[in-house]
Amino acid sequence: QVQLVESGGGLVQAGDSLGLTCTTSGSTSAMGWFRQSPGSEREFVAAISWRGGGTLYADSVKGRANIARDTTRTIYLRLTSLKPSDTGVYYCAAQTDGVMTSRDDGFDSWGQGTQVTVSS
């Protein structure tokens, strides 16, 4: 497992954009973001593979989200045209091994979470 440090989040207006950042303490095969709103199960948002840079997006954010990585073990998630339904706690997650997946049971390290609130 690795340690994950998240930053970003906050209160924004509908239609605004937001960036989230997550840095890992060690090597991973893929990293991603999940979110959870009150009363709902945690859901996949996006993921990126370190080796090939391949990406996965949930249908709910496709076209509005961009996930990227750099050379310093950091990933970035940018969400645009935010909606109140994007509100939730966003968790960074990492796979230390294996093929990139959108399943939360495929990730073995999790961040503390950062709150994103989109007001209408």
User: What is the approximate shape?
Assistant: globular
The number of distinct β-strands equals 11
Number of helices: 0
Mean pLDDT equals 96
User: Over the alpha carbons, how many angstroms does the gyration radius reach?
Assistant: 13 Å
Report low-confidence residues grouped into runs of 5 or more: none
Helix content: under 10%
Largest sheet: 7 strands, mixed
User: What is the distance, rounded to the nearest whole angstrom, between the alpha carbons of the first and last residues?
Assistant: 38 Å
Q: Estimate what percentage of residues fall within beta strands.
A: over 45%
Give a structural overview.
This protein is an all-beta fold. 0% of the residues lie in helices and 50% in strands. It contains no helices and eleven strands. Strands 2, 4, 5, 6, 9, 10 and 11 form a seven-stranded mixed sheet that branches. Strand 5 (43-49) and strand 6 (55-57) form a beta hairpin. The termini are far apart.
